[in-house]
């Protein structure tokens, strides 16, 4: 099976990047992380990428670009130059420009710490706790123009405990993310999928 080349964009500590790199290294996930880029120079993800010997590791400073489009365009050019098939967002905290989403239509995936469409946005874990739901979870989805609104590739449930705080809940969510993200990437490469409207249909159909 030919490996897919992926670009990972991350702003934070990079535990999902690490899980993907580990799964790729152990042969569980047929991807090669060809590029890692961050909008934060001090992101843990950059250190993880360097330690793993990722070919292209980029710290892009948004302040050095005149606009969001210009930043995304430079990022997209590096992704194309690295020959990446997929763009994997792993805790990437920037809103992508419409041009970037259109340029890489149906090739950008994200992981979100809730069962979408519940609790979109940057505070999904604390919002679920504050609402009092008994179950939340993780969603892997395609990225389109609607925030956290693209087609759903995979979901998993995480139960909320009576004594949970944001930290304890996010820790269990992270543990699930570290399984589901590499597993979903593997399924995408191995099985392929098509879209029927917004519904993901797994498998390659003639
Ligand atoms: C994850 O919880 C993910 O769902 C969200 O951002 C967090 C990133 O964590 N989009 P990490 O940087 O991969 O540790």
Characterization of the model:
This protein has helices at 15-25, 44-52, 68-81, 98-103, 124-131, 166-191, and strands at 4-9, 31-38, 56-59, 86-89, 108-112, 135-142, 152-159, 193-196, 199-202. With 206 residues, it is α/β, with parallel strands linked by helices. It has one domain (4-202): Formyl transferase, N-terminal domain (Rossmann fold, 3-Layer(aba) Sandwich). The protein has a 7-stranded mixed β-sheet, with helices on both faces. Strands 8-9 form a two-stranded antiparallel ribbon. The chain is globular. Bound molecules: 5-O-phosphono-beta-D-ribofuranosylamine (GRF). 5-O-phosphono-beta-D-ribofuranosylamine (GRF) binds at residues 10, 12-16, 90-91, 111-113, 174, 177. 5-O-phosphono-beta-D-ribofuranosylamine binds at residues 10, 12-16, 90-91, 111-113, 174, 177.
Percentage of residues in helical conformation? 25-40%
Please name the CATH topology. Rossmann fold
Which ions, cofactors or small ligands are bound in this entry?
5-O-phosphono-beta-D-ribofuranosylamine
Biggest sheet layout = 7 strands, mixed
Succession of helices and strands: EHEHEHEHEHEEHEE
Strand order of the largest sheet: 3-2-1-4-5-6-7
Shape: globular
Supply Rg.
17 Å
- State the end-to-end distance: 19 Å
* Whole-number count of domains: 1
> Which class of secondary structure composition applies to the elements?
alpha/beta
What is the compact description of this entry?
This protein has 206 residues and is an alpha/beta fold. It has helices at 15-25, 44-52, 68-81, 98-103, 124-131, 166-191; strands at 4-9, 31-38, 56-59, 86-89, 108-112, 135-142, 152-159, 193-196, 199-202.
């Amino acid at each position: 099976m030919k490996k897919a080349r992926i670009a990972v964009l991350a702003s934070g500590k990079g535990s999902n990047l690490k899980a993907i790199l580990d799964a790729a290294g152990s042969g569980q996930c047929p991807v090669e992380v060809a590029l890692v880029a961050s909008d934060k120079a001090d992101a843990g993800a950059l250190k993880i990428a360097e330690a793993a010997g990722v070919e292209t590791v980029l710290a892009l400073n948004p302040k050095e670009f005149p606009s969001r489009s210009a930043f995304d365009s430079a990022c997209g050019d590096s992704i194309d130059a690295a020959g990446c098939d997929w763009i994997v967002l792993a805790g990437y905290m920037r809103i992508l420009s419409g041009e970037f989403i259109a340029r890489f239509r149906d090739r950008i995936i994200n992981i979100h710490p809730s069962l979408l469409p519940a609790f979109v946005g940057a505070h999904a874990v604390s919002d679920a706790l504050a609402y009092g739901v008994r179950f939340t979870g993780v969603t892997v989805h395609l990225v389109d123009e609607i925030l956290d609104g693209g087609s759903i590739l995979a979901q998993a449930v995480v139960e909320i405990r009576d004594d949970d705080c944001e930290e304890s809940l996010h820790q269990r969510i992270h543990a699930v993310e570290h399984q589901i993200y590499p597993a979903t990437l593997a399924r995408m490469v191995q099985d392929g999928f098509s879209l029927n409207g917004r519904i993901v249909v797994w498998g390659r159909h003639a």
